[in-house]
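[[Local backbone shapes]]
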Amino acid sequence: MTDLLSADELERRLRAVGAERYHHLHPYQLRLQSGGCSRFEVEAWALNRYLYQACIPQKDAIILSRMEDPALRRAWRQRIVDHDGEREGDGGIARWLKLTDDLGLDRGAVVSGRLALPATKFAVNAYLTFVRERSLLEAVASSLTELFSPQIIKTRVAGMLEHYDFVTPETLAYFAARPAQAGRDSDFALAYVKQHATTRAEQEAVVAALEWKCDMLWAMLDALEHAYVHAAPAPGAYRKLDAASFGKAA
């Protein structure tokens, strides 16, 4: 495999990764959006997913610090603003905390990460390590899961509003802005990798980076599926006793 792919061929390869590996196919995700999860399982998903949401601006700050071109930095830094906001209480992380608040989760416990599954913590740390240690090209390519997120967001929101009487559009406010943001960001990242992957080896590395990111997101849901459907959560992770201590039914 030495022949250089055309830009269109590379894009087709990347989109094929999403069709096969993105977590819209995961059983936990399918149950979440179809009403098959208990409230407790929805809470566990939101609590664990917070750690991933909170790491996104950290990940983007690492990538930003590796960019030598000011034009690239100016484009990339908007991602940090989207998640951190311009002020306290603004941005994607604050809106995710609205979700966990409305589910009755203790905000301090959510933010601390102390009740997250060990696999969630390992996955988030692995993602930060990946963008720090791999090439800038691979780090940018790992963000291309945003190519696939608008559709899963639309399906998730519609399904959760239909099936769970404990969520409202306000509860799910995080997802309102994300399709447009993800579309803008994935357009930029896709153009970047198509331009800068100039050898077949670099093109294969770009594809592998996106596969790795899809695997990481899948592994997070695997952990939820194992802990809350088939077995039991690890010591110290969120469980029904914690739900009860937050003053609500599990």
About this structure: The chain has twelve helices and no strands. The two ends are 53 Å apart (CA to CA). The mean pLDDT is 95.
